[in-house]
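Field: COMPLEX_INPUT
Field: COMPONENT_COUNT = two
Field: RESIDUE_TOTAL = 250
Field: MODE = joint
Values follow.
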Amino acid sequence: MKKRILVACGSGIATSTVVTAKVEALLAEHGIQANVEQINISEAKSKQSDADLIVSTTMLPTTYDIPSVVATGYLSGINTEDIDKAILSALKGD
Amino acid sequence: MSISELLKEEYIWLDEKLDTKEDIFHLVFSKAYKDEKVKDSFYEGLINRERLYPTGLQLENHGVAIPHTDILHVKEEFIAIVLPEKPVEFFRMDNANEVVLADIVFVLAIKDSKSHMKTLSELMDLIQNDSLLSEILRSSDKKKIIQLIKGNEDKK
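Field: COMPLEX_OUTPUT
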């Protein structure tokens, strides 16, 4: 089934734009079919019910029922491989 | 749109004596408001966004911050670069309890993310390019900084 991923930042406009592109490229590289939606982190709580994963550039303000990955490293370029792994493993459910 | 298209010499500040992020916001806001590029709510917008969702990034050798606001405060888009004389404290984007000392600050006044995919990814490339960032920080010439950024874009 097609996965659904929420990519969040504080405004839903600046850093999530960059991270959305990174996530889409990662998924394509691994042949994972997914819808990626760019959101404002405050929307994550209400949108999580029909999503599989939250990827955020900011600290998470609360806990969620679905897996979440903080991906600030995609912006700073630090530990990006760990973020790739965390996203892929969350989607594979292992 | 490339960063260099949104960047003007008059929106670059070098070696400014600025002690706090509020000083930086005020500096950029005063100029942008005078030029009618932002609404009078832009300063508060920066403060509030930074308080809720800080924008400091700790890099290997540098600290960077990329403050921005909700789009409604912006009338005409621009990117400002501020190099404070001494690094200024911001909180970290990935951990708001930790401080990063920013030696370069990019204030992003953006109205629409869709059209700025390229700008934003170029900015991240720039931030991740340690030698380019170091060269910008060493530079005392605004023209040179624009050339450095443009040169990096042209390589793409």
